[in-house]
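Batch manifest line 304
LIGAND: 2-acetamido-2-deoxy-beta-D-glucopyranose
JOB: complex structure
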Amino acid sequence: MRLSFQYTWILCLGLAYAAPLVPRDGASYCFGNVKGNASKISCPASAGGSCLLVESAQTTIVQNFTLGKTKTTGFVAVDDTNKLVVVSIQGTAIRSNPIDIVTDIDAIRVNTDLCGNTTANDGCEIHQGFWNAMNDVQDIVKSTIAGALATHPNYTVISTGHSLGGAVAALLGATLRNNGTNVDIYTYGQPKLGTVDVSNFIQNQAPSKGSNYRVTHFNDIVPQLPPHSIDDWDHYYPEFFINLDTGAPKATDIIRVDATLFSTAGNEGKTTGDGIIADVIAGISAHRQYFGNISRCDPSAPDS
Ligand SMILES: *[C@@H]1O[C@H](CO)[C@@H](O)[C@H](O)[C@H]1NC(C)=O
Ligand SMILES: *[C@@H]1O[C@H](CO)[C@@H](O)[C@H](O)[C@H]1NC(C)=O
Ligand SMILES: *[C@@H]1O[C@H](CO)[C@@H](O)[C@H](O)[C@H]1NC(C)=O
Ligand SMILES: *[C@@H]1O[C@H](CO)[C@@H](O)[C@H](O)[C@H]1NC(C)=O
Ligand SMILES: *[C@@H]1O[C@H](CO)[C@@H](O)[C@H](O)[C@H]1NC(C)=O
Ligand SMILES: *[C@@H]1O[C@H](CO)[C@@H](O)[C@H](O)[C@H]1NC(C)=O
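JOB STATUS: finished
ARTIFACT:
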């Protein structure tokens, strides 16, 4: 399933610290791939090898974007080595894109049409900030992917992101599936998207319309937000839970959790028991490391 490989697409995208949980965001990761004119994806040596798998592949960024009121940032790339069309969405970038903070905390839920008519429970309500961010980029992503697939009909489409970028990537993946394109969704440290209909819908799109890989790391606080106990925020499954605090995870450290809506068998079970503030403090550093550090790739990038 290549969880660690798909992760490198995020490392090569941009920084992804979680605002407002982390007071300082570090270097913007390989910033040139997003804002610059780079075509083949490249990362500086300071990446520490995290991006080597992507850098060694034959890749072309076919479209980059920073769009809408949410200034949602990302790219669509074609990887000829691995036969992929990749949508990668940047996570919260406090300095380069401070509006991300507004997007993150815009956590009222709006009724959406994502789920079609499968709205038995709550009308397919989604976090307004994530939904707006998805809508700001869906047209360009759809048209770019359609163009890429016209040239490479057999390539697999993946949608990926970390943190806020993971939430938007999941909603984009679900939207593209509704639009007739099969998409594998890979998210890392993704917060909850909405309520029961949303989770059921995305969960049930798999496997026929693509697979879902929602990766969580140890006590990362972000996938625990917004809290399930408040107003029934839910997750789709399976969850791929990295049950290792620090260091490089081995295959045996990754536990697949299958559930419906809520399970404490994975990340949701890793709480301090001392309340949300304690969980936030304890769980920030895990948010910044998945298969390696999420940032600090390029100290010379504009965000540092
Ligand atoms: C991209 O290329 C254009 C045209 O060469 C140039 O004006 C612009 O400054 C470049 N942008 C960046 C971020 O390097
Ligand atoms: C990436 O974005 C920059 C700045 O908007 C633009 O000049 C460049 O053409 C874009 N590259 C691609 C491949 O979209
Ligand atoms: C929901 O929509 C699908 C596809 O449009 C349709 O096949 C199905 O009958 C609908 N179900 C209900 C309960 O309306
Ligand atoms: C796509 O895959 C099918 C089945 O494997 C094959 O017949 C076809 O030639 C492939 N098309 C391209 C453009 O590679
Ligand atoms: C996909 O979206 C495009 C652009 O919005 C639209 O023209 C097309 O009809 C959609 N296709 C499907 C199958 O929903
Ligand atoms: C991750 O970054 C921290 C500093 O923020 C550093 O101490 C640690 O060694 C890094 N880990 C890896 C695997 O690069």
